[in-house]
Amino acid sequence: MNTNMTEDDSIPTIPEFFKGRDIFITGVLIEKLLRSCPDLNRIFILVRPKKNQNIQERIAALQNLPIFDIIKDQDPKNLDKMIPIKGDVTEIGLGLSEDDKLLMADVSVVFHSAASVRFDDPLHEAVIMNTRGTRELMLFAETLTKLMILVHVSTTYFNPRQSVVCERMYPPNGDWKGTIKLAEQYPEILDVLTEKYINYEPNTYTFTKGLAEQVAIEFQDRLPIIIYRPSIVISALEEPIPGWIDNFNGPVGLLIACALGILRTTHGDPDIVSDFTPVDTSIKAMIVAAWKRGTKPTSEKIVVYNCSTSLQRKFTTGFIIQMGENLSSQIPMDKMLWKPGGSITKCRYDNFIKFILYHLCTAYVVDTIFKILGRKQFLVKLQRRIYGANLALQHFIRTHWVFENDCFLKLHNEIKSSDLSNFRYDNFVTADVREYFLHCILGARRYLLHEKDENLPRARRNYRRMNLIDKVVKTVLYSGIIYFAFIRSGAVAYILGL
Prior knowledge:
Layout: H1 14-18, E1 22-25, H2 30-36, E2 42-47, H3 55-63, H4 69-74, E3 82-86, H5 98-103, E4 107-112, H6 123-141, E5 149-153, E6 164-165, H7 176-185, H8 187-192, H9 194-197, H10 204-218, E7 225-230, E8 232-234, H11 250-260, E9 266-267, E10 273-274, E11 276-278, H12 279-295, E12 302-307, E13 315-316, H13 317-327, E14 344-345, H14 348-373, H15 379-397, E15 402-403, H16 406-412, H17 420-423, H18 433-447, H19 456-487, H20 491-496
Parallel strand pairs: 1-2, 1-4, 2-3, 4-5, 5-7, 6-15, 7-12, 8-11, 9-14
Antiparallel strand pairs: 10-13
Helix pairs in contact: 6-7, 6-10, 11-13, 14-15
């Protein structure tokens, strides 16, 4: 709730602040800025051409996503403000041409959120993308004479050894300059020495994002920087579509895997609190942070916000898995391979035995049947990938962090009353949990698995069929175990003295 009772009329509203501005973006935010700040001048979007798509075609594909439907209905011409800029964060100078640099000369706000979030990237690739890419972005920002704000999007997990993460800068976790040189000159050697070089951090992602913050700190005397640290960003709470998502990160991946019936066991602590943030909550707060930095002077060279929610709403990993199982009968998946379900165990050996029995053995049986039927075999390969993903996530589902977010919460009080309808982001505290996760599963079904809502009745019939098959198979399996273990082995006769 906004508690700012005395508002300064000389301070512009958020749409007024962005009116007429040129903005440079290397990631998300586009739809919200166009919809809620329609009078901005242009949004320059760094786009890397693909093999079969040029940058104009990639922007056209982006605009065809369902999230842009509201803008198409209300003000379709605003989409023309999306200007693709050919470039690549992994290249020196961002791969920008001189003409494009000249085109962006009036940019006054920069949002830098482009990064590789893969946990298994080779170290040299993660360094080039996440750390050197940040340096190149900062160097380009120095050439922008009208720059007022640069928002560097980090992560709350940038310093995973810190059990309590405050909204401040931290000492370096490594030499970012030396690491970039090693990645450029000796990539293979750096990859071989990864575990030792990153000092046994969970993965290359957290290490290189920590280094990227040090890059931002290096430029604090020359650029107006905000370090914005979201936790795990997942499905939209309200905007632009409830449940909208475009990746399998965090609890949504767990929900989908359980709903498809391919995840039966996970090694972790079911009582660990998961910190995740709806994508629209994160985006709105990021825009508000930029507005505040641009309209209200501060003596701080770098302002830091931890965009986290676990201190206000606590959801354990076990709760999320249970919620997914409970909702799976209402929103089942078309591509369901078995009855939805899943469990999380603290015991490594218990998890390994369950994985062999419920994942790997089942996968080999099903793939053998597929082979006999002449169908494509994929389940064994998929289960190996799931096992690898579980290994990568173990540190995060067995470790408890506290992300202090006082500045993030107080930032909401700065929003002017006229902006609350478009930029209020504290509603995650009062949101209905079951309804939110229902939208999460429905959104994952629509936007990740590309399944149609009209197929839901058929999917529900399939769910009931899978439920029956699961009971029959378990009955036969347990009966067989009892038969061979007791009757066939003569154990019953021995006990009865026959």
